[in-house]
Specification:
Layout (H helix, E strand, L loop, with lengths): L1 H12 L2 H8 L5 H19 L8 H25 L2 H8 L2 H13 L2 E2 L1 H18 L7 H23 L5 H24 L10 H26 L1 H7 L2 H13 L6 H17 L7 E2 L15
Antiparallel strand pairs: 1-2
Helix pairs in contact: 1-10, 1-12, 2-10, 2-12, 3-4, 3-9, 3-10, 4-8, 4-9, 5-7, 5-8, 6-8, 6-11, 7-13, 9-10, 10-11
Length: 293
């Protein structure tokens, strides 16, 4: 059950592309980002009114990296790269997390976890089949967005926070507020949402953002960033599956093989293993134990 809660975040985020394609194609992605974050933060604070659980500088730093800068970089990458390429670059998250742990804490990843990260990335490459025509600016933005998520995940897993719902609410509220001037500058005044887009907006606000971001923070505290990085590989897999079910896309044999490779990497992650890192304090990989701070 704990692993299923942690999986909610990448699974729900994988629905973003299908929901936007069905309900929100007429709106600027920058305003869609505002509508995702800001109402979700306000709603969570109404349900759970609390002060920020972190100091203001840490709270603003997380909101800026996880919401404002992440969405801005993601949209630049989406405009300059094929969607498949952007999705593949996001699948470097497990390797980026291992690199950050090695660089910042001197914790060298074990061979098993390095191979699992490479295996998952190979599965996503098969699944998405990125184009060889890569725009350097788009690639840099996609990788920087993934790096921000990786570094923010390490901060959130290490900083002492007991009220994850308040942390989620303030992160979304502050990040959404900081997105408003950027959206106004790049896309003009905010358009009024139309009734036909209501199902898509409700899905994005309630499930895709409010619930998913809480589940991501919960998973980071429970399992640690490295395990969550591997679980994030289900995001492109779910995105492609929703495309098949809702948008009428089809999968070829190579893409089915990619799905099988991703699932196999997650299955191997669950097998008993030695400590995640050599040297330093060992982090046990077990879905029923909290990640180390």
């Amino acid at each position: 059950m704990p692993l299923l809660i942690a999986l909610l975040a990448p699974l729900l985020w994988g629905s973003t592309y299908a929901v936007v394609s069905l309900y929100l194609t007429d709106y600027s992605p920058y305003w869609v980002a505002v509508w995702r974050a800001l109402p979700a933060g306000v709603l969570l604070l109404l349900l759970h009114p609390r002060r920020p659980p972190l100091t203001w500088n840490r709270q603003f730093l997380l909101a800026f990296c996880n919401i404002t800068a992440f969405f801005a970089l993601l949209f630049v990458a989406a405009y300059r790269l094929p969607g498949a390429v952007a999705g593949t670059l996001g699948a470097t998250l497990p390797l980026i997390l291992m690199g950050l742990a090695w660089w910042q804490d001197g914790k060298r990843p074990s061979l098993k976890w390095l191979l699992l990260g490479l295996m998952g990335l190979a599965g996503v490459l098969l699944l998405l089949n990125p184009s060889a025509n890569l725009d350097p600016v788009g690639v840099a933005c996609a990788l920087l967005a993934t790096l921000l998520i990786g570094q923010s995940s390490r901060w959130m897993q290490r900083w002492p926070v007991s009220d994850l719902l308040a942390l989620t609410a303030w992160q979304l509220l502050l990040g959404g507020l900081m997105l408003i001037p950027l959206a106004w500058w790049l896309a003009g005044p905010m358009p009024l949402p139309q009734p036909a887009s209501a199902p898509g907006l409700l899905w994005l606000i309630l499930l895709n953002t409010a619930l998913a971001y809480w589940a991501w923070l919960w998973g980071l505290k429970r399992h640690g960033p490295e395990v969550m990085g591997m679980l994030a590989l289900t995001n492109p897999m779910v995105a492609v599956s929703f495309g098949v079910l809702l948008v009428g896309e089809t999968l070829d044999g190579r893409q089915w093989l990619g799905i099988a490779v991703i699932l196999l990497s997650l299955f191997l992650m669950k097998l008993p293993t030695r400590p995640l890192f050599k040297g330093g304090q060992a982090a046990k990989v077990c879905p029923d134990q909290p990640g180390n701070g």
